[in-house]
Design a protein that fits this description.
Blueprint: E1 3-8, H1 14-24, E2 31-37, E3 43-49, H2 52-61, E4 68-74, E5 89-91, E6 95-103, H3 106-115, H4 126-140, H5 143-153, E7 156-164, E8 171-176, E9 181-184, E10 189-192, E11 204-207, E12 213-216, E13 221-224, E14 230-231, E15 236-237, H6 253-259, H7 261-269, H8 288-294, E16 297-302, H9 304-321, E17 325-329, H10 330-333, E18 344-350, H11 356-365, E19 372-377, H12 383-387, E20 390-393, H13 406-425, H14 430-451, H15 454-461, E21 469-474, H16 478-493, E22 496-501, E23 518-523, H17 529-541, E24 545-550, E25 562-566, H18 575-594
Parallel strand pairs: 16-17, 16-18, 18-19, 19-20, 21-22, 21-23, 23-24, 24-25
Antiparallel strand pairs: 1-4, 1-10, 2-3, 2-4, 5-6, 6-7, 7-8, 8-12, 9-10, 9-11, 11-15, 12-13, 13-14
Helix pairs in contact: 1-2, 3-4, 4-5, 7-13, 7-14, 9-13, 9-16, 13-14, 13-18, 14-18, 15-18, 16-18
The chain binds 6-O-phosphono-alpha-D-glucopyranose (G6P).
Length: 611
């Protein structure tokens, strides 16, 4: 989703801003732009449809020289992805603005501004904000006041950054929804949508809260609250380094992130899970132990891949902790009337911690009588972490590929920890819990073995590349694993893929099965195996081709229409983590063969900061 970078420095900012945009590419975008205010007080800009590299090429051809600037990657919402709609937008060249989010009342404001003589050059809601700020600047002569007054008229969720010819030496930025950070340098200061954009220039950050406006100058940064009062904000030093977002020797970030999973999982276990000792709560926030002890039900809310992790955890919670669990996508939850069971915990899952629907669901949950909000999140500085009373961090490290991989498997590991903690509090048998802890601790090794399937899956992918559709089957906790496999395939290879609980096959999707429909099944050696095998026979009998990921001893034999991929065993109840890995690899290799943009698939964004 849109990315913002801006800065005021003693040096030329063009390359800093372009590097910032490159580092925000993972968020997903369709066009990019940059505007720089030169030392003669003139704003110059470049905008390009497509990748940041196109914009960089334009800047090589015709460099923008200046010490103040703003830049943007745009993910189209209002107006198609054209150069004219790309940011920064001008108001008669006196003002340049970049914007993330949606201005909901743009239509009446546009009409009013047109009546007042402002000429519009784009179809965007952003240009409305540019003219509105220009109008206020005419009256006040002060860019900060102009932004304060203009934003009072705006409705919706947005983050903005503005520079003005008439009030140079500062970038004014504000936040009302999408994230915004300030980066503190020496004699230079920056703003961006996330810390990764600014890591080459600083590791010191302050996080802007909703409703705040920040005045960024060379020698100081001043943050104002909604009422115009100065806010003191702690400056935090990020543990991330600029190199943390490099692809290394891998061809794609997604590939790197798939192969990082053994490490990411062991980092998420580190210091928390020990085989011979009951789990110690690593949950941040006061009263975590008391909250878990009194939890009698759990409501999980998340989006996308994170939602699938929640669906798996539901099986674990109900089976191991014996408490009811509901799981819902955040965009539905936030608008529904809820009946909350007594002593319910509200649990959110998010890689980024900035997903607008998930954040809105957290707000909505405050209307209900939840005992607490627990966030499982990968970004310690995110909005979700700041807005939840309890937090369990996944230690996956930065995830750049739009298709989530290591964030998902580390979420599962964190979820199993929560399940074990609740089960422990509820007096579950220690020998059962010990066994589960042992299985968790073995996960990194077992994932390593699943990754050894890579060459085999690469060859298998050749049989998917020309298909238009694929069906994924699983049962129990492996149904959401199948859902995640289908999501991965459609996200990055654009092959239509659907997941079904295998027992539902006969109620509809079986009609689709023929020789052109590959059917992928997830078949662990558990109590459902025999049932699943009957479902697979239903596919075989209709001439469908099966690709079955099965543990040794499943009693499935290769044959016409039946391809068996032998999975490593030993992960017990944590095995959904292991079975996810080959499905990620299958999607990855299919996409590579198809030649799609693996890390930034069309139309998708990594961090969805609008509704
Ligand atoms: C986007 C991403 C998905 C991700 C989802 C939820 O759709 O493309 O990969 O699963 O958002 O993101 P979150 O950061 O909340 O886990």
């Amino acid at each position: 989703m849109c990315g913002i970078v801006g800065g005021v420095a003693e040096r030329n900012v063009q390359d800093i801003l372009l590097e910032g945009l490159r580092r925000l590419e993972y968020r997903g975008y369709d066009s990019a732009g940059i505007a720089v205010l030169d030392d003669h007080g003139v704003i110059h800009r470049h905008r390009r449809v497509g990748k940041v590299v196109e914009l960089s090429n334009a800047a090589i051809q015709s460099p923008l020289v200046g010490r103040i600037g703003i830049a943007h990657t745009r993910w189209a919402t209002h107006g198609s992805p054209t150069q004219g709609n790309a940011h920064p937008h001008f108001s008669t060249r006196r003002i340049a603005i970049v914007h993330n989010g949606i201005i909901e009342n743009h239509a009446p404001l546009r009409e009013e501004l047109i009546r007042q003589g402002y000429a519009f050059e784009s179809d965007t809601d952003t240009e409305v904000a540019a003219h509105l700020i220009a109008r206020h600047l005419d009256h006040t002569g002060d860019l900060l006041k102009a932004v304060q007054q203009a934003t009072a008229e705006l409705e919706g969720a947005y983050a903005l950054a503005v520079i003005a010819q008439d009030d140079p030496d500062r970038v004014i930025a504000c936040r009302n929804g999408p994230p915004l950070v300030v980066g503190y340098g020496i004699g230079e200061h920056f703003i961006a949508s996330d810390v990764q954009a600014l890591l080459p220039v600083t590791q010191r950050f302050a996080f802007i809260e909703n409703g705040e406006i920040v005045d960024v100058r060379r020698d100081r940064v001043t943050i104002y609250d909604r009422g115009g009062e100065i806010v003191e904000r702690e400056i935090k030093t990020s543990a991330l380094s600029a190199g943390a977002v490099d692809r290394g020797a891998y061809r794609h970030f997604m590939q790197k992130e798939i192969f990082e999973q053994p490490y990411a999982v062991s980092e998420t276990l580190e210091g928390r899970v020990v085989a011979d000792r009951p789990l110690a709560a690593e949950i941040l926030g006061s009263d975590a132990a008391a909250v878990l002890a009194s939890t009698r039900a759990v409501q999980i809310v998340a989006c996308g891949t994170s939602y699938h992790a929640g669906l798996i955890a539901r099986y674990w919670l109900e089976e191991l902790a014996g408490i009811p669990c509901q799981v819902e996508v955040a965009s539905e939850y936030r608008y529904r009337h809820h009946v909350v069971l007594p002593d319910s915990l509200f649990l959110t899952l998010s890689q980024s911690g900035e997903t607008a629907d998930t954040l809105a669901a957290v707000q909505a949950s405050r209307e209900d009588a939840y005992i607490a909000r627990l966030a499982i999140c990968n970004v310690p500085e995110s909005s979700l972490v700041r807005e939840s009373e309890l937090v369990l961090l996944t230690h996956a490290g930065p995830e750049i590929g739009v298709a989530s991989t290591k964030a998902f498997t580390t979420q599962l590991v964190a979820l199993m920890q929560v399940v074990l903690l609740v089960a422990q509090k509820r007096g579950a048998d220690e020998s059962v819990l010990k066994n589960l802890r042992g299985e968790l601790l073995h996960l990194p090794q077992i994932i390593e073995r699943a990754l050894e399937l890579d060459p085999l899956i690469e060859r298998l992918a050749e049989r998917f590349v020309d298909r238009g559709h694929a069906l994924f089957l699983g049962r129990g906790a492996y149904y959401p694993v199948a859902m995640e496999g289908a999501l991965k395939l459609k996200e990055i290879s654009y092959i239509h893929a659907e997941a079904y609980p295998a027992g539902e096959l006969k109620h509809g999707p079986l009609a689709l099965v023929d020789a052109d429909m590959p059917v992928i099944a997830v078949a662990p050696n558990n109590a459902m195996l025999e049932k699943l095998k009957s479902n697979l026979e239903e596919v075989r009998a209709r001439g469908g081709e099966l690709f079955v990921f099965a543990e040794p001893g499943a009693g499935l034999c290769e044959g016409p229409g039946m391809n068996i991929i032998e999975m490593p065993s030993g992960a017990g109840m944590s095995a959904p983590v292991v079975f996810t890995v080959p499905l990620q690899l299958l999607a990855y290799h299919t996409a590579v063969l198809k030649g799609t943009d693996v890390d930034q698939p069309r139309n998708l964004a990594k961090s969805v900061t609008v509704e």
